[in-house]
Specification:
Layout (H helix, E strand, L loop, with lengths): L2 H45 L4 H27 L4 H17 L1 H16 L7 E4 L2 E8 L3 E5 L5 E5 H5 L4 E4 L3
Antiparallel strand pairs: 1-2, 1-5, 2-3, 3-4
């Protein structure tokens, strides 16, 4: 091997190979740690008797958020400038948040209904402009069956933003 080629390999290829190995190690170790932390969080929420739908959602959000940070750390270790990437992700998150403002409002209201449980399935309620028995509480909507056999799907933000009267449960 000519001396010039050997010098190029030592100057550029070897350091890049070490950075690549370190980035891969950061990603693999970070992914493993993210999975462990997500599983621990799931166990804590389950022992705290948090609703199963909220547990699954919380675990998934925590895992992918941590995985995003791990990926950024790996890219940074490779020598890729990540500040502009972080700014783009932040701007995209803001744009998506503004575009989905109504849906995010309903989602947040659904989380609040699941956490604080002002009423439960089977309760007779008045709220969100309707009255009837709660059939199902979903992440974005609450399904209410009225006395005249109608199914009314009420956005959760309308329920949490309105007065709710709970009359009683089905026995």
């Amino acid at each position: 091997m000519p001396e010039q080629a050997q010098q190029i390999v030592q100057q550029y290829v070897v350091p890049f190979a070490w950075r690549l190995l370190a980035a891969a190690a950061i990603f693999i170790l970070g992914k493993w740690v993210a999975k462990i932390i997500a599983n621990v969080a799931e166990g804590v929420m389950t022992r705290a008797k948090v609703k199963a739908s909220l547990v699954a959602f919380g675990r998934t959000m925590l895992y992918y958020t941590m995985l995003l940070f791990v990926a950024i750390a790996s890219l940074s270790k490779l020598g890729i400038e990540t500040t502009s990437f972080v700014a783009i992700v932040g701007a995209a998150g803001l744009a998506i948040g503004l575009a989905l403002q109504g849906a995010l409002s309903n989602f947040a209201a659904g989380v609040m209904l699941l956490i604080f449980q002002p009423f439960d399935i089977g309760d007779l309620i008045e709220g969100g402009g309707t009255a009837g028995r709660v059939h199902e509480i979903q992440m974005f909507n609450t399904i209410i069956h009225t006395d005249d056999k109608k199914v009314v799907i009420v956005p959760n933000s309308k329920i949490t933003g309105d007065k709710v009267v709970v009359h009683g449960k089905i026995k």
